[in-house]
Structures are given as C-alpha cells and as structure tokens.
C-alpha cells in the first residue's frame, strides 16, 4: 500500500528549460515533471527519488539528458524524453542543490551539509564515475566553497565556468577556478535603511558580470570583482520587496527579475532607465528560467503555476496544476458535476482542479476585487464553500481578514449550462454578525426543488436556514427562513442526514439534532469535556448513526434511534471525512508528530483499516473523490468507489493508491506514445489489432533483465518502426521477432481473462496491454544502453529469448491449413 | 575657458550658442557643445573639422537636445552629456557613436573625467550624480567598456559642476552644497580623506564688519547689504537675552550690475567706504550717513585693474585699500577725501609668483601687511617703505585664515589641516608658543574637525586671547593656559560649569569652545565688551531655492 504525493510542494528547485523550447522541466515533490510548452500537457513524470528533488540541471554534453539530485542522497541521470533513468549516483549525504558545467565533463557540483555543523553548507564537486551499470557511487567529493547558502539561487557559475559565486546573508564570495583565488565582499548592514541581504545571484553569460538580487528589492551588478579593492557595482532598483529570482538572456543583454509584485521586469543593457514590465502575472514570481535559445522564458510562481513568456515580454500561456493558495480555508470539496477538487486558488478565487488530468479546469472569481500583493493589507478572501448535491448551486462565504469586523458576504451561484459556469444569483451582506463556521446544503433528488435549503452556522451563536423565494428581487432570490440557537452557544458545525430529514448542529460541547421540516429540536448529545470538532452522519446502512469528534480526543458514535452513545474511542481526530458512496468514514488523527488514518464503519467500533504514520506532516483536510469506474481491489473494499485525498499543512496533496509508483507512472508516459497519432493505414490496423494481444511474461527472461517484464510481438514491430536505426540490432536478428509478431498467438481469444489471472498470480501486477506496450518499449531502450557494455553476453540472452519464443509459438493455424 | 549653463535648465539657450567646451589633452583640438550638435575645432587652423548631430538617430525628436557638458579624451573619444540624460561616447574622426548610456530621465548637466581617463562623473538635474567606469568586459581581457556603476544622490537640485580628483568625486549643485565623495577603493587607509564631506558655506569671508561704525556688510551673489547693528544699554548674565534700545537697521542694498557674481567685498573700519569686485570689474563706493538717511556715491575714476580683485581689505585707519590681485601682487590704493582714490604702489613678492593672492591681513598699526597667494606662500610686506619684509616658512597646506595681533604684531595663521601657527613679524620667526604647540601637537578632536577656521580676531583686553571660528564653533584660544592632551575632553565648557571652583582651575585648558551658534558665518569683536556673531540658518536659503525637478518617488 503506497502513500504518495500527488502534487508536491511548488518549487523546490524547479524549472529548467530545454531547447528547442519544447519542454519545461519542473520539480514537484519527489518527481520531475516534463511539460510540453505547446500543449501545456504533462508528458513525463520522472519518479524514482525517495525524497524531495532539490535540483535539476540539463546534461551540458547532451541536452536530452537531465541530472537531478534529491535529499535522498542520489544524483540521477535521466533520459527525460522517454522518462528512463539512465544512471544513479549515490553520494550518501543530503543533496540540496545541483549545478553542472559544460567544461567539467565528468563532474557535477552539489551543495551538501557540512559534517558536524548544523545549518552550514558547502559546495562540493562530485566525480561521476564512468562505470558500467545503473547504480554507481559518486564519492569523489572535493570542497569548492565553504559556508554557502542552501538554496540553488545562492550559487551561480560564471562565464564558461571560470568562476563560481556564492551569496549568503550580506556576503558574496567569488572563487576563480584557474587562479585558485577567493574574493569575499560584504555589504554594510549598518547604514542601510532596508534589509540588503542577498536573495539570489546569476552570472552574465558572456561577460564577467554578476547580478545579485537583494531583500530590499535592489539588484546589484558587480564588475571588476577580481580586484579585492577596486571592484565596483551598479544598482538597479524597481522592486519594492525582495527580488526572488533573476535571469540573464542568452546574450546577456537583457536581465529579467521578479518578486512579490507579480511583475516581470526586463532590464536592457544593465541600464536603470530602460526597462519593460509584464505586470499582473497573478502571484509572486519565485523562479525565472530562460530557454537555451532565448525564445521563451518561464516563471514559476509561488502558487505553483508556470507562466511561459515570449521574448518580447508577452504572456504566452500558463501551465497550472494545483494552485497553492496562502491558506486553504474552504477545505477540500468535490464538485459533484465534474468530480474536480474545489478549494481556494488564487486570492479570492475558487479553483476547480481535475485530479485525472492534473490541470486546473477553471478558476471562479468569487471576491471579484483586485488583489494587492502587499504585506499587512487586509483583504477579503474566500473562507467557506459548499455545493448542492447535484452541483447546480454553489454557496460561498467571503470575509475580510480583519478580526473585529469581518465584513461577511454570502454568495449563491447557480450553474448555467449555456456558459458552462457558475453565475452569481444572490449576494447576502452580513449573513451573520460574526464569522461563519460552517455551511451545508440539503438537496434531495426525490423531494424536488423545494427541498433545497442552505444552513449556515456562525460564531454569533445562531444558525440560519436560507431558502429560495419565488419573487425575484434584484439582490437575488434567497432569503433567511429560520434562525435557531441553542443556549447561546457558538454554532460550529452543521450537517444533514442522508435523507435530509435531520440536521445536526454542534454548539460548542453539544450536538443538537433538528427536524428539518418543523425546525424542532429533536435531541441533543454531548461527550464532555471538550468541544465538538467534527460531526457527520452515517450513510446507507449506517444512516442511524451520528459520528462526532471532540477536541478532547474522543471519537463518539451515537445511535439516533436510541439516542444513546453506541461507542466511543480515544482518538485525537483532526479530520473526519465520510465517503459519499459507501458507509465508510475516514478519520485522520494527529499524535506525536505523525498522522494516522483510520477507516471505519459507524456500525462497527473496530476500524476497517488502520494506517499508522501516514505522513510526518499534519494532515489538515481530506476528501473522498468518486472514481469513474470502481476499482478492482479485493483487499481494500473501502477504496473501491472513491479515492481518498489529503492535504497537508505544507499544502501537499497526497493520496492512497493500491498500485506502486512504477505502475502509476506508466499510464502517464503513455500519452507520449507515438501510436496514438498513427495514421490509419493497413499497417496501423494490424498494429491496432495486435495491441490487444497479451503475451505471457517469460519468467526466465524476467530474472535476467531486471525490469524486462514482458516481451511480446506487437511492441517488437512498433519498436522496429520507431527505434532509430543506429541503435537497432541487425536485421537478421530482428527478422524472427517481426515474423513472430505477425502470427496470431494462442492467447488472443481470451486475452483479458488471461490478464486478470496473471494479475492475481504474479506479485508484480500486470497492466493492460496498452500500458505494457510502453513499458516494454522503455525497457528495450535501457537494454540497449546496457547492450553497449555487454554486447556478447546480451546477444546470447536475446537469442535464448528467441528460442523460447519460438517454442511457445502457437502453430495451430498450421493445422488449419 | 568658461562655460556656464546659466539660468534654469528649462530655459533653452539660443541655437548655435556654445554651451560647453573641452580641450584635447594635447591642446590640438577643442570640442564645443551646442544645441543638437557639437563641433570639433582644430586649434591651429581655427576651423571646424567635425560637426556631429547628437540626436541624429532619434527619430522625429520633438525636443531639442542640449549638449550641456562635453569632454575630449586623449584617445580621441568625445564624451557628451545632454539634456536627454544621456552620456554618449563618440569617435569624432569617424563621426560615429560608440556607446550611449541613458543615466537619467532628466538632463545630464555636467561631466568630469579622471586624469587616467578610466572614470567619469556625471551630474544630472535631479541632483543625482553617476559614475561611469571603463571596465574590462572579461576579467583579464583587453576589451574595455564604459559601465555606469555607482549612483550618488547628495543634492536636491541640479548638479551644475563636477570634478574628478584621483581619490574623490566632487560635485556642486544648485542647492548650495559642495560634496566631496571619496572613492573608497582608492583610499589606502581610513582617515580624514575617506569620509564624505558636505559643505554648505564657502570657506571665505562673506561678511565684513566696520567696528567703529558698527556696520555689517553682507555679500550675496548679486548684491550687498549694509546693516547697522542694534545696541543695548543693559547688562545681564550668561544666557540672558537683553532688550535692545536701538533696533538693527537695514541701511542700504547695493545691487551689482550685470549677470556677474560678486567675488569679494569689504567695508572700511570707519564705515564710509565699501568696495566690491566682480569677475570683471572692481567698484568702490563712498557711504555717507546723514542722520537717518544713507547715501551711496560711486567713486569715479577708480583705476581699472585686470584682472580685478580676489580679495579686498581696508587698512585699520581706513586711509588705504589693499587689493589682492593676480601673480601674487597686492595693489595699494590711497583713499582720498571726499571721495576718490589713487593707486599708490603694487607690492610683489621678490621671487615672483604665478598664483593670485587670496587672503590679506593688515596690522592694526598700519605697518605690516600679510598676503597669502594660491601657492600657499605667505609674504609679509612693510607698508611704510612698500618693501617685502619676509616670508613665512612654507607649510604644505592651504591657509584658511590669518590675522596680525594688534599689540605684538604676531601673525596667527590657521591652516586647512587645522594647524595653528604664530609667527612673529618683527623677529621673522615662529614664536615660542607656536613652537611649543608644534612640539606638543594639537588635540586630536581639534585636528579631526570638518571645517577650516575662516576668521581670526583678537581680544584687545587680553593679548593672550585669540578668537577663532569656523562654521560650527567659536573658540577662544587662551595662550596662557596649558594645551589639552588627547586624554582630556576638548569641548569641556559644559562640564567645567558643573565643577567647583578649585577643580575647574585644574581642568582648564587653552581651547574654550562654544558651539551655540550654527552655522556660524562671521564673528568679530566690536569693542572690549561687544562681540558680533552672524548666523545664517540653512532653512533661510533652502526656502529660496527653486523647486527641484519633479520626480515620482515610490511610497510617497
């Protein structure tokens, strides 16, 4: 069972461009994503690191290869076009940043923590041994610079790799490789008004000029820095706050800078008078990267979005996955219509994020006010959101950040089929006198339109029921129908039972249950001490139960028929999430710095599933997202209909999946597969037919080649057609494979059943034939890599393979003749 | 060779007018900047050999481009600073533009090149100055390029003049400030030179005092003002403000004709003569006070002097006028009643001198005259026989003030490095007190002061007292008291006040310093009981400055 980061932290050391401007490589958590610039789609997901990837650099010798380094202490060399890891170099210590140099062929530079000292880092060069095989040691460490910053932005290599610059706090050090000269410069901290610490450094590609960004928004251009005394710098100042990143154009005539202003500034010829701006990029710029041919530039924003910008400073397109907002106040909500995950996006916006395509479907502007990036400014933000059951109505609550006067607004949006978007229907100013704590819809299909009601609970100790009224006044057609309260306690949570007849509202320590027709208080529950943190009703067979979690560390299940406590458990539940399609309820607890997951049915006090130490970070939110097709897992029934997603404190979205990472990776790489776009020719039809073939894995072969799981006929043909000629074995060797592939194999008739059986039997679960094609293709590539090393040995194995193929071949068609 | 962007930069001069000039270091060519173009003139033939349009490449330039400053480098590169805020580098022989740097959005007004021609300072109308440096494109490489490096914002108004010394950038602006910004990379050690200096007032006497007539003459750039001092009959304690029985009175304002600034001025001790000089002419006026009314009459047939005076000084008995002039000469005029003057004699150093005299000090008995010339040599003349008497031993520093003691005829000299020397004129040697001071050395705090002593006077009641002042302090130097050493406090007046009588005596030292009056322009002793002090509040003239160039400032 695997926990995996679906979408990691935006950053860390993201973003490299590849010539000829076709791909953007972008680090996301443990993965490197390869996006196509033209289609904005993710092409490859390079996974294999066991911890966060901290740096990526293109191989200067081969621009189709990529080095990546990770906190797990390894450097991997990838063929990112095909998503194949070529080599893995184990260094052994945490790697925090990675640099490559065209002049240093067999070595890369990495930043590692200094031994024996906390929070000090050093830049070392690592000799990459040219050994045979995939896993190699990269142990030859030689220290280049001491006491460097841990971020990748704090080190830069100068023109043709003649020197290296490192900045940290107010100190800049330059090391000249040839002369072995180290110069240190520091800025004075006394006289300056602002904070003039260094924030980033880049080097001019053609001249000896260093550009540094500073926390007070200045950019300094250093020259003559080989003199200890007669160095000089000029200053460019436009940013009012920290300069987050800088990038020189290919010729060095232009310098790009970005910061919290969300404006990309282009400086010409290092002159402070000639500058161009690209404003309104949406959110603070964190990284800037220039494509190697200088045609495009790419900015990574703090909200996890990539903007691609033309060389004439025109916004071209943006690639956005899950937008990282400052704070997810809305919770994780699933849009019933699109099955998209809905949460805070850009400030004041609601994002609809498709989990399947890892893309933002759209962003709905709720607050409809210009957001100003300035510290300390109180601005309105979206805090609560709820969908009606069929997704036709959307209720949003926005409030300003001011504590005393929240300036609440409740907005109701109706989905318009024509424009395929939500339209504002009703705006209610100050629906409550204090912060709204929760809201939910009752929307029963059986009861028709009249059943649609909205309940809001507020810290002003009341809950309000809102209904639609027929007479349409300009302000909209929702109005307050009922106001209820309970002993002047603050209302904290509300939820409807599955049939909509009961409404449960928690008032501090007490849960109250109300009849939703007459608004009579039916019964109350409480489990002192401690306030109620979460409540929810059971579903389907368990609809007679009400579950509540208290902040005193108890999970209680009450029976609504007997009005008695059914069971309770001592558990510090932070998230309580019922699955809308089954009886299961997921509870995430937080105890002693680890989150644990418990899945249970209300009817049984014993959990169905327990996963201790789900992750080290605190899980803040969770959501069950219905699957398009029920998944075929015997083991985890509760995951059949929906998938569980979590959002951690650092806004990492995680999920539980039954498949291993490798298996999950294959479908994503499928998108690149060429056969999708093959023209319809008799040959392609032939291939298409063969695609459904399922060949059995040759177990003997599997042992020989580590990843070579399957070998089958039709991929062989495809490979014959798509592999470059110079890496193909001789034609005589391939001939038999090709002939074999054209034969109708025995398994053809019952391909799917066989596949299922195989999946049951084998530990390495097999995939559909489509996916397999690609895996096979990739594997073949790696085997070619190895082939270079062990030609003779490999050939014999292949021949062996051939023999086995022939032996297994179905000769039944001969008898038919 | 003068070039002056007179008037505000918004008023454009007529086209074709030469606004700036620069010589080639070899003296073969001159460049002359005008509006929209500059010319290169061959000195030998006097012909224009090149004429370059500076905004040729600007399409449809609506505004005129004024070349405010220009420099011709020895390599043949012409550097121009223009009203578009550009500093451009031209190859004048080919007539091509080599580099263009837009340093400012407002006009670039002034330009100075370092001696090595590897650094340029540019002054702009926003008050900012910029340094451009000739730096190698690649470390160790031969190719060099001009790069705008450091910006400095020391002025609030136009920077009209800049200079580039080997170790400092000097700029003067319309905001009446002179700023010396040392180049730290050229400094060998930290010290006096390695500190930014700002000067608001010139280190010259701008006020002269007629002691007997109790008149003050103020010198402004275009006019003079004559004031009669108020007086009081009361007495009081320290710190009290006495009520006046006669209010100070503005007697007359004398406007100079023409655009020229007044260079120096003086009022005679009796208060009946006023002399002033501009860059081209010297004027002498006779003042007559008839009761309340004051009349001024120009003295006719004043001998024409070329060049005019650098300093004017009336003798103590107001019967002659000393005019400091070029080549170390001092003209002596005899003043004749009722209003006339006659050239008596011209004093000149025996060995000759190329520099002009800039400071004069006559003795009270009318016997001696000390004159300081630009080469810092101090010559003493005997006025009875109009002969050169002697020369004060040379000291490697500029003289900032000097005066002759009325009773002992000792010449007290203040140097710009804050040294004080006393030279006995009759004995032609330094006095013993001066030698003692030299051997012992002055207090460190005194030597590290910023502004030089601008005026020296004496207390007739106590011959041991020397009164000195600079812009920030007034000092009574009591020769009878011991000199302070570095361990004691130099400015100890406030601590002395709190001490008992006996302890106070032990703590006393020669320097009695008062910092009450700032900025102090002038101080003189009228009589035994009366000291006149002239303060000029900075806000007085800051408010009179024209509006600075409008700039948008972020966050305001």
From TrEMBL, chain A:
<protein>
    <submittedName>
        <fullName>WD repeat domain 75</fullName>
    </submittedName>
</protein>
<dbReference type="GO" id="GO:0003723">
    <property type="term" value="F:RNA binding"/>
</dbReference>
<dbReference type="InterPro" id="IPR057644">
    <property type="entry name" value="Beta-prop_WDR75_2nd"/>
</dbReference>
<keyword id="KW-0539">Nucleus</keyword>
<keyword id="KW-0804">Transcription</keyword>
<dbReference type="Pfam" id="PF23769">
    <property type="entry name" value="Beta-prop_WDR75_2nd"/>
</dbReference>
<keyword id="KW-0677">Repeat</keyword>
<dbReference type="InterPro" id="IPR036322">
    <property type="entry name" value="WD40_repeat_dom_sf"/>
</dbReference>
<feature type="domain" description="WD repeat-containing protein 75 second beta-propeller">
    <location>
        <begin position="332"/>
        <end position="651"/>
    </location>
</feature>
<dbReference type="GO" id="GO:0006364">
    <property type="term" value="P:rRNA processing"/>
</dbReference>
<dbReference type="InterPro" id="IPR015943">
    <property type="entry name" value="WD40/YVTN_repeat-like_dom_sf"/>
</dbReference>
<dbReference type="GO" id="GO:0042274">
    <property type="term" value="P:ribosomal small subunit biogenesis"/>
</dbReference>
<dbReference type="InterPro" id="IPR001680">
    <property type="entry name" value="WD40_rpt"/>
</dbReference>
<dbReference type="GO" id="GO:2000234">
    <property type="term" value="P:positive regulation of rRNA processing"/>
</dbReference>
<dbReference type="Pfam" id="PF23869">
    <property type="entry name" value="Beta-prop_WDR75_1st"/>
</dbReference>
<keyword id="KW-0690">Ribosome biogenesis</keyword>
<dbReference type="GO" id="GO:0032040">
    <property type="term" value="C:small-subunit processome"/>
</dbReference>
<feature type="repeat" description="WD">
    <location>
        <begin position="46"/>
        <end position="88"/>
    </location>
</feature>
<keyword id="KW-0853">WD repeat</keyword>
<dbReference type="GO" id="GO:0045943">
    <property type="term" value="P:positive regulation of transcription by RNA polymerase I"/>
</dbReference>
<keyword id="KW-0698">rRNA processing</keyword>
<feature type="region of interest" description="Disordered">
    <location>
        <begin position="753"/>
        <end position="780"/>
    </location>
</feature>
UniProtKB/TrEMBL annotation, chain B:
<protein>
    <submittedName>
        <fullName>UTP4 small subunit processome component</fullName>
    </submittedName>
</protein>
<dbReference type="InterPro" id="IPR001680">
    <property type="entry name" value="WD40_rpt"/>
</dbReference>
<dbReference type="GO" id="GO:0030686">
    <property type="term" value="C:90S preribosome"/>
</dbReference>
<dbReference type="Pfam" id="PF00400">
    <property type="entry name" value="WD40"/>
</dbReference>
<dbReference type="GO" id="GO:0000462">
    <property type="term" value="P:maturation of SSU-rRNA from tricistronic rRNA transcript (SSU-rRNA, 5.8S rRNA, LSU-rRNA)"/>
</dbReference>
<dbReference type="InterPro" id="IPR011047">
    <property type="entry name" value="Quinoprotein_ADH-like_sf"/>
</dbReference>
<dbReference type="GO" id="GO:0003723">
    <property type="term" value="F:RNA binding"/>
</dbReference>
<dbReference type="InterPro" id="IPR046351">
    <property type="entry name" value="UTP4"/>
</dbReference>
<dbReference type="GO" id="GO:0034455">
    <property type="term" value="C:t-UTP complex"/>
</dbReference>
<dbReference type="GO" id="GO:0032040">
    <property type="term" value="C:small-subunit processome"/>
</dbReference>
<dbReference type="InterPro" id="IPR015943">
    <property type="entry name" value="WD40/YVTN_repeat-like_dom_sf"/>
</dbReference>
């Amino acid at each position: 069972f695997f926990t995996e980061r679906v979408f990691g932290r935006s950053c860390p050391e993201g973003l490299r461009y590849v010539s000829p401007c076709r791909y953007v490589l972008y680090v996301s958590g443990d993965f490197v994503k390869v996006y196509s610039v033209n289609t904005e789609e993710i092409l490859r997901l390079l996974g294999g690191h066991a911890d966060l990837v901290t740096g990526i650099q293109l191989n200067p010798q081969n621009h189709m290869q990529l080095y990546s380094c990770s906190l797990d202490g390894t450097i991997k060399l990838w063929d990112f076009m095909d998503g194949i890891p070529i080599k893995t170099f184990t260094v052994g210590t945490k790697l925090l940043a990675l640099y490559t140099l065209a002049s240093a062929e067999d070595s890369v530079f990495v930043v590692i923590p200094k031994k024996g000292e906390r929070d000090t880092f050093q830049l070392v060069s690592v000799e990459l041994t040219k050994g045979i095989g995939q896993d190699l040691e990269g142990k030859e460490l030689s220290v280049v610079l001491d006491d460097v910053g841990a971020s990748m932005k704090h080190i830069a290599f100068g023109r043709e790799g003649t020197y290296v610059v490192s900045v940290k706090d107010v100190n800049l050090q330059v090391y000249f490789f040839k002369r072995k000269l180290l110069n240190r410069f520091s800025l004075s901290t006394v006289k300056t008004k602002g904070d003039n610490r260094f924030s980033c450094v880049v080097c001019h590609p053609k001249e000896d000029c260093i550009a540094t960004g500073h926390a007070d928004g200045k950019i300094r251009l250093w020259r003559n820095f080989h003199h200890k005394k007669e160095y000089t710098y000029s200053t460019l100042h436009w940013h009012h706050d920290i300069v987050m990143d800088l990038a020189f154009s290919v010729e060095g005539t232009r310098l790009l800078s970005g910061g919290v202003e969300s404006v990309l500034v282009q400086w010409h010829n290092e002159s402070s008078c000639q500058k161009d701006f690209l404003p309104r990029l949406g959110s603070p710029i964190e990284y800037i990267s220039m494509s190697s041919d200088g045609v495009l530039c790419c900015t990574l924003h703090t909200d996890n979005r990539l903007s691609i910008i033309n060389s004439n400073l025109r916004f071209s397109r943006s690639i956005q996955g899950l937008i990282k907002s400052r704070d997810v106040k809305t919770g994780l909500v699933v849009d019933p219509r699109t099955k998209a995950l809905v949460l805070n996006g850009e400030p004041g916006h609601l994002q609809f994020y498709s989990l399947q395509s890892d893309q933002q479907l759209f962003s709905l502007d709720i607050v409809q006010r210009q957001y100003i990036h300035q510290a300390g400014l109180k601005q309105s933000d979206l805090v609560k959101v709820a969908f009606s059951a069929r997704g036709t109505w959307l209720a949003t609550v926005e409030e300003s950040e001011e504590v005393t006067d929240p300036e609440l607004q409740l907005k109701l949006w109706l989905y318009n089929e024509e424009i395929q978007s939500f339209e504002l229907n009703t705006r209610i100013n100050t629906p409550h006198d204090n912060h709204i704590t929760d809201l939910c819809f009752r929307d029963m299909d059986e009861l028709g339109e009249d059943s649609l009601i909205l309940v809001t609970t507020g810290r002003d100790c009341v809950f309000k029921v809102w209904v639609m009224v027929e007479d349409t006044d300009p302000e909209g057609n929702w109005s307050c129908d009922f106001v209820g309260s309970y002993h002047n306690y603050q209302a904290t949570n509300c939820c409807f039972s599955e049939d909509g007849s009961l409404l449960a509202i928690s008032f501090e320590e007490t849960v109250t249950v109300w009849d939703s027709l007459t608004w009579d208080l039916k019964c109350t529950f409480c489990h002192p001490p401690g306030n109620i943190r979460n409540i929810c009703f059971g579903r389907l067979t368990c609809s007679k139960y009400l579950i509540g979690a208290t902040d005193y560390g108890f999970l209680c299940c009450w029976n609504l028929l007997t009005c008695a406590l059914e069971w309770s458990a001592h558990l510090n539940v932070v998230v309580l999430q019922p699955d809308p399609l089954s009886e299961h309820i997921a509870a995430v607890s937080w105890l002693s710095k680890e989150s644990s997951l418990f899945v249970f049915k209300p009817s049984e006090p014993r959990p169905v599933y327990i996963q201790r130490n789900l992750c080290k970070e605190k899980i803040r939110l969770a959501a069950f997202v219905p699957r398009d097709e029920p998944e075929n897992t015997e083991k985890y029934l509760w995951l059949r209909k929906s998938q569980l997603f979590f959002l951690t404190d650092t806004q990492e979205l995680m999920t539980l999946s039954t498949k291993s990472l490798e298996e999950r990776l294959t479908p994503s790489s499928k998108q690149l597969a060429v056969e999708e776009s093959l023209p319809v020719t008799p040959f392609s039809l032939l291939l298409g037919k063969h695609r459904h073939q399922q060949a059995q894995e040759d177990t003997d072969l599997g042992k020989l080649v580590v990843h070579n799981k399957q070998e089958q006929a039709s991929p062989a043909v495809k490979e014959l057609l798509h592999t470059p000629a110079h890496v193909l074995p001789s034609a005589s060797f391939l001939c038999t494979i090709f002939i074999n592939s054209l034969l109708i194999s025995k398994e053809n008739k019952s391909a799917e059943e066989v596949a299922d059986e195989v999946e049951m039997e084998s530990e390495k679960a097999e995939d559909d034939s489509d996916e397999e094609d690609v895996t096979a293709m990739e594997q073949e590539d790696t085997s070619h890599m190895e082939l270079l090393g062990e030609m003779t040995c490999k050939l014999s194995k292949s021949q062996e393979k051939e023999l086995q193929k022939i032996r297994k071949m179905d000769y039944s068609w001969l008898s038919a003749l | 060779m003068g070039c002056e962007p007179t008037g505000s930069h918004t008023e454009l001069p007529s086209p074709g007018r030469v606004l700036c000039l620069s010589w080639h270091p070899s003296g073969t060519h001159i460049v002359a900047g005008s509006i929209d173009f500059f010319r290169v003139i061959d000195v030998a033939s006097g012909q224009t050999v090149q004429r370059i349009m500076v905004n040729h490449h600007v399409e449809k330039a609506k505004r005129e481009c004024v070349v405010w400053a220009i420099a011709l480098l020895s390599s043949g590169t012409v550097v121009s600073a223009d009203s578009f805020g550009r500093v451009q580098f031209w190859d004048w022989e080919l007539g091509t533009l080599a580099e263009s740097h837009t340093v400012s959005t407002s006009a670039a007004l002034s330009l100075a090149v370092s001696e090595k021609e590897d650094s340029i300072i540019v002054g702009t109308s926003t008050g900012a100055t910029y340094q451009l440096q000739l730096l190698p494109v690649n470390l160790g490489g031969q190719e060099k390029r001009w790069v705008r490096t450091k910006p400095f914002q020391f002025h609030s108004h136009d920077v009209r003049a800049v200079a580039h010394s080997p170790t400092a950038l000097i700029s003067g602006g319309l905001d009446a400030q002179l700023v010396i910004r040392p180049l730290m990379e050229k400094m060998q050690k930290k010290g006096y030179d390695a500190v930014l200096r700002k000067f608001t007032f010139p280190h010259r006497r701008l006020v002269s005092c007629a002691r007997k007539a109790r008149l003050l003459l103020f010198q402004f750039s275009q006019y003079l003002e004559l004031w009669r001092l108020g007086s009081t009959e009361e007495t009081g304690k320290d710190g009290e403000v006495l009520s006046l029985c006669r209010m100070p009175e503005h007697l007359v304002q004398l406007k100079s004709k023409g655009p020229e600034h007044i260079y120096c001025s003086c009022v005679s001790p009796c208060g009946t003569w006023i002399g002033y000089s501009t860059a081209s002419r010297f004027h002498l006026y006779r003042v007559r006070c008839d009761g309340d009314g004051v009349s001024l009459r120009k003295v006719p047939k004043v001998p024409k002097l070329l060049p005019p005076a650098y300093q004017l000084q009336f003798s103590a008995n107001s019967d002659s006028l000393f005019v400091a002039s070029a080549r170390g000469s001092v003209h002596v005029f005899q003043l004749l009643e009722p209003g006339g003057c006659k050239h008596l004699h011209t004093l000149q150093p025996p060995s000759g001198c190329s520099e002009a005299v800039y400071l004069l000090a006559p003795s009270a008995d009318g016997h001696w005259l000390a004159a300081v010339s630009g080469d810092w040599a101090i010559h003493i003349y005997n006025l009875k026989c109009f002969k050169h008497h002697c020369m004060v031993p040379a000291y490697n520093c500029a003289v900032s003030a000097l005066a002759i003691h009325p009773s002992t005829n000792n010449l007290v000299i203040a140097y710009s490095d804050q040294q004080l020397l006393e030279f006995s004129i009759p004995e032609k040697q330094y006095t013993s007190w001066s030698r003692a001071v030299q051997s012992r050395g002055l207090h460190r705090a005194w030597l590290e002061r910023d502004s030089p002593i601008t005026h020296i006077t004496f207390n007739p009641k106590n011959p041991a007292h020397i009164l000195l002042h600079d812009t920030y302090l007034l000092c009574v130097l009591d020769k009878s008291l011991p000199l302070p050493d570095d361990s004691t406090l130099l400015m100890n007046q406030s601590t002395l006040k709190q001490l008992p009588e006996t302890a106070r005596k032990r703590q006393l030292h020669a320097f009695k310093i008062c910092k009450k009056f700032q900025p102090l322009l002038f101080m003189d002793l009228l009589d035994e009981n009366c000291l006149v002090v002239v303060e000029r509040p900075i806000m007085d003239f800051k408010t009179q400055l024209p509006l600075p160039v409008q700039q948008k400032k972020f966050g305001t």
